[in-house]
Amino acid sequence: MYGFEMGPIRPPSEANSILLRVTRNCPWNKCEFCGVYKGEKFSLRSVDEVKRDIDAMKAVGVTSSSAFLQDANSIIMKPEQLAEILVYFREKFPEVERITTYARADTLSRITPENMKMLREAGLDRVHSGYETGSDQILQMIHKGTTRDQQVRGGLKVKEAGMELSMYFMPGVGGKALSEENSRETAGVINEVDPDFVRLRTFVAKPGTPMGEKVRNGSFVPCTDEEKVTEIRRMLEQVEGCTGVLVSDHIVNLLEDVRGSLKTQKEEMIGKIRQFEALEPFERRRYQAARRMGFVRRPSDMDRLPADLSEQISGIVRKFQTSEQWEDFLNYFLEQYI
Length: 338
Ligand code: SF4
Prior knowledge:
Distance between the termini: 26 Å
Structural class: alpha/beta
Helix content: 40-55%
Bound molecules: iron/sulfur cluster
Largest sheet: 8 strands, mixed
CATH architecture of the largest domain: Alpha-Beta Barrel
Strand order of the largest sheet: 1-4-5-6-7-8-9-10
Number of helices: 13
Low-confidence stretches: none
Mean pLDDT: 96
Order of helices and strands: EEEHEHEHHEHHEHEHHEEHHHH
Number of domains: 2
CATH class of the largest domain: Alpha Beta
């Protein structure tokens, strides 16, 4: 319709970026929590085709100070081809200050340091990678197709090439059984790699995905909404000597204000989670309900709710007798957000 292609997703931090599709869909497409590209076939796009898209964008006046290369694992392209695209794009859009992309940890671990540096010099500034967890046991369980070792080697290579690394952590993805493992092993990877950004994506078992089916048939017992927040606290408590930033930039995260420098604000972030954990159970649920319905972002927002809305929320909370019903209620909203 626009004369150039556009893939289905980009990170929230790239909301205002030019979206340049260099490959289509996901070459792995087997992660059990992910339904984004299910049924879609991966394909590479030719350099000429992508250059035509760049020309078409330029012709219709697309502009921004940032750009994001789509889809799920752009660096699977031949490095020389991707570099050629980056250089061409930079020539056509000199106003762009930052170019970023998604990349899988296994691909990052295989690319040579020389090729990574070539991509950096061609204009790639930041890599977003869905690590999800640092636990090999959980990575296997969710069919991520990557290992902790690949995460560490790939992540360090990104940083050594002079790019920023933005990794994603998925609290709750190991379920109740592997909750402590998820915190501990993810903190271990963060400590080894020291990524520039650790972005929180709270796990939600979306219906229609293999993990959604496992929840339905009882073979995977999910963490509660509160337990996922506790995982973030435990992860933070085990992070040592890191200089990056914890980012909460998705509505699936329960406490949006748990974010900040891992170097200087770690205790403050842990304190915010402890404050939530210390709320009376009824108040905790009132906050969860208000957050999941989209009225608040942090517990202190509860004081600003109009009195009638606050009373309605209390009424809703009182209706739930069992914790299963309660979690189902919260998940009903969460599923709309992913
Ligand atoms: S999470 Fe990423 S790598 Fe996994 S299937 Fe989805 S798009 Fe592909």
